[in-house]
Amino acid sequence: MIEHPKGLVLLDTGWNDLVRKSQWAELGLQVQINKAYLPAGWSIKEQLAELGYSDADLEVVLLSHLHSDHASGLPLVKHAKKFLVSEEEFEAGRKDKLRYIPKMWRDVTLTPFQYVNSQLGPFHRSFDLFNDGSIQMIWTPGHSAGLSSTLITGADGKSVLLASDTGYAQSSIEERKTQGISINQS
Ligand SMILES: [Zn+2]
């Protein structure tokens, strides 16, 4: 979560706490390829509460992509004001019934955003959340069609890049190892 002057911004939701009771109920057939891991205190609801916040305090929930381990917790933050995901990912989530479980976002209204040409990322396409360069979603597809990495730049000009699922570890990036479920290994 980013405490931004324009409001609280949450990036991805992690798993819904329902997975503690039944992985099958949350994941269906996906349990064969995906296992949820959510120790006590780790759900987004619990983590927000620990910081003294509730989901209604969130200005925007940004989704790097819509795979289960990033979107399953959406019902836990359904009172956030806005939910944004790239148009490419939104379309993939609608069409690809194998990799996505749309019931995870049925309680919220996902609003697709459009990447525009920019200097950022491998494909020079990104979306500037507040139009001030502070939070930018950069198109880094491969693992999924619309995957975003997030570049956060503070008032001091220093940046942090959050790159969900672009590589599982430093070594996988350096050795260019891709993941089994990628839609495009190159
Ligand atoms: Zn993923």
UniProtKB/TrEMBL annotation:
The keyword Hydrolase applies. GO terms for molecular function: hydrolase activity; metal ion binding. InterPro entries: MBL_superfamily_lactonases, Metallo-B-lactamas, RibonucZ/Hydroxyglut_hydro. Residues 2-174 form the Metallo-beta-lactamase domain. Pfam families: Lactamase_B (PF00753). Its cofactor is Zn(2+). Gene3D superfamilies: Ribonuclease Z/Hydroxyacylglutathione hydrolase-like. It comes from the Bacteria. Keywords: Hydrolase, Metal-binding, Zinc. Belongs to the metallo-beta-lactamase superfamily. This is Metallo-beta-lactamase domain-containing protein. It comes from Latilactobacillus graminis DSM 20719. The lineage of its organism: Bacteria, Bacillati, Bacillota, Bacilli, Lactobacillales.
